[in-house]
Amino acid sequence: MTVKFTNDLSSVIQKHKKMLEKSELYTYYFFYNSKKYYQCIYLRFKKTTGVVILDETGAVVPKSTAVKVAYYINSYNNFILDVTRVIIPEMRKSYKPIEEKYELLMKITSKTEDSAFHKYFSILDEILCRRRRLPEIVEEFTKLHDEVLRTNHLDLGIYHRALNIGEEFNEIVFSTAMRLTEAVPITKKIKEDRKLYQQEDFYPEVKRLVAGINDFLSPSSLKELEKSVRLLGEDEVGNHQIISADEKGMELAKELVERNGKKDFERKVIPIIRNGD
């Protein structure tokens, strides 16, 4: 993602470099308000310690412009990291336990009208349907980023396309956690009532289903599930809150992710922007 500096830029970049730092210039420019902007980062022992935003002439832009441009570039770069560290691992995560319960519930619900089984089946069906989008999401972003690397061009249109992909991923992960949370009391009821189905021909499937439910209801699994639900539920002052798994809840989760991203940028990036220094 870096290129060798041109002679025109090297003196400007050197001027803002501090002791023991290395500098890297991003290959792609950010097209904003009909102008091209480049980002140079400074690293000391592989940690980013400084940022300078330059215009297409190689001049250092005003601090206010630098902050706006750096926000878009760094948000996009963070999403690249998210694809590698979060989205792809989530896509590769085994959903075999859920798939096995789904298959058992498909057999059970074909033989009974019991609402607990049908509700549980509906929840797992929604989770698996949403998860099938993950490989497509990765493919969509890969094509998008390949375009950026091929053209060395990033703009607001591309940025918002990447943002939409990220929002859909967050919705899939968040809704999965919320739907599994809804399943907890249903699975507890199935476990408690399992002996009521001893005379039914689908009882072998119920026994196998309950065995999987025991794992789902283990203290460690419930603790991990609670952590997933609360991860996106942090308000302005850092308190955790539960968000409903409906359209209103999804919108709130989206706002929280955006707010936390801006807070992270303000805390980590703005203090090291050297434009205006």
Quick take:
The protein is an alpha+beta fold. It has helices spanning 7-15, 63-92, 96-109, 115-131, 134-151, 156-192, 203-216, 219-231, 247-268, and strands at 2-3, 22-26, 29-32, 35-44, 47-55, 153-155. Strands 1, 2, 3, 4, 5 and 6 form a six-stranded mixed sheet that branches.
Write out key terms for the chains shown.
9 helices; alpha+beta; six-stranded mixed β-sheet; single chain; 277 residues
What does this molecule look like?
By secondary structure, the chain is α+β, with helices and mostly antiparallel strands. It contains 9 helices and 6 strands. It has helices at 7-15, 63-92, 96-109, 115-131, 134-151, 156-192, 203-216, 219-231, 247-268; strands at residues 2-3, 22-26, 29-32, 35-44, 47-55, 153-155. Strands 1, 2, 3, 4, 5 and 6 form a 6-stranded mixed β-sheet that branches. A hairpin with a 2-residue loop joins β4 (35-44) and β5. α3 (96-109) packs antiparallel against α7. The longest helix is centred in the middle third of the chain and has 37 residues, at 156-192.
